[in-house]
UniProtKB/TrEMBL annotation, chains A, B:
Keywords: DNA-binding, Transcription, Transcription regulation. InterPro entries: Homeodomain-like_sf, HTH-type_TetR-like_transc_reg, HTH_TetR, Tet_transcr_reg_TetR-rel_C_sf, TetR_C. This is TetR/AcrR family transcriptional regulator. The lineage of its organism: Bacteria, Bacillati, Actinomycetota, Actinomycetes, Kitasatosporales. It comes from Streptomyces omiyaensis. Residues 35-54 bind DNA. Pfam families: TetR_C_11, TetR_N.
Length: 201, 201
DNA sequence: AGGAAACGGCACGTGTCGTGTTGACAGTGC
DNA sequence: GCACTGTCAACACGACACGTGCCGTTTCCT
């Protein structure tokens, strides 16, 4: 079933051509209208070669996406949480959650709804590392007194990123940068440490 | 192309059987593993009959879902926004965003990523009315002084519902009821009117 | 009562999938 | 320098679901 081909003998040229062709075709025609045959044709590659290294079309496009997204979504640390989160989320919005690649990303997420293996890959390669990094950055801010000591970082991440995905996947319109600024400011402000001595339930 | 069949002559028996069969099969085998042929077979109906009244499988399942969801997602008005929102969102979570029907709903949303017509139907029949109702309820609360006068109700809705869809569609685990309570309380608390005379940017 | 129209049953052409087979080619080891 | 091993492109194939067309039958409005 799975002869596990030898990665050392893999043609890096074909590998690159396949990833490039997959991303190009998805941007041009939309994720759902791209077939494995079309990717193979554009890459000048046999369909068999694609199936040798990836289980499905979704896995191919996911790898192309991970590669693309991996570069521009790190969390800076200038000492100001609000500014740093705003910087990172602006980059995420610009590169992934809006523009021509947003619908491709949405297509991958759609595919994970009926492909558990792809869902695991999406989490393992894209989501989990970034969520962990976001939590780390928020914990750091909490330790430095920029967030309330009892702030639930998991809830913070949900509140920061949830609405972005919600609007993307439910076609509720884009998230303009100005709105993103207000969004980040409000969420983090709602977890600010109490200035003197008072608490609101 | 579209002879627009006469709704008055429609067989209500077949109509019901199709919707029931569609929902049953989706819950049993998962949205993605259900075919129009299977729905027709289970309903004791010709495939042609389904295609006469719906353009795609997604439209059939969406109608079944709208019918099911329409009953238990109204916004009560007891005077207490926090309690009312918690009540409504608990119902949404119990009936739609968790349990056996959650993955069916996720499957429909997935399909909208490459079916613009279905996306419009989803918004028109499910999302827009409920979002509008939520905004109305929040504006009422704002008028009654339970929310800050400058509270952005659109942002409130995004913060309330965004994380729920985010966790569903990205397979980040369910939203336990206790967490939902804390979530609603925090979000609405973050828009509470300032008690004496102070403002936090 | 009559006729139009929706109905169930069936068969068909299409497109995509994922696999199988073949012969050409490139890297490694003796 | 030569055989070996495994990847490569090319093509063919069966399986499956889609969406449509045609049939004779049944249902319901006028």
């Amino acid at each position: 079933m799975n002869p596990t081909p030898n990665p050392q003998r893999r043609s890096e040229k074909s590998h690159r051509a396949i990833l490039d062709a997959a991303m190009e075709l998805c941007v041009e025609h939309g994720y759902g209208n791209v077939t494995v045959e079309a990717i193979a044709a554009r890459a000048g590659v046999s369909k068999k070669t694609i199936y040798r290294w990836w289980p499905t079309k979704g896995a191919v496009v996911l790898e192309a996406f991970v590669e693309l997204a991996g570069t521009a979504t790190r969390f800076p640390d200038t000492g100001d949480v609000v500014a740093d989160l705003r910087t990172q989320m602006t980059a995420v919005l610009a590169n992934i959650l809006s523009g021509p690649r947003a619908s491709v990303y949405a297509g991958i997420i759609a595919e994970t709804q009926h492909d558990p293996a792809l869902a695991r890959e999406l989490r393992a390669q894209l989501l989990d590392p970034r969520v962990a990094a976001a939590r780390d950055r928020l914990r750091l801010a909490r330790d430095h007194g920029q967030l309330a000591p009892d702030a639930d970082v998991e809830m913070v991440v949900d509140l920061l990123y949830g609405p972005l995905y919600y609007r993307l996947l439910l076609h509720l319109g884009p998230y303009p940068p100005a709105r993103l600024r207000a969004h980040v400011a409000h969420v983090l402000g709602s977890f600010a440490p109490a200035p003197p001595a008072s608490a609101a339930p």
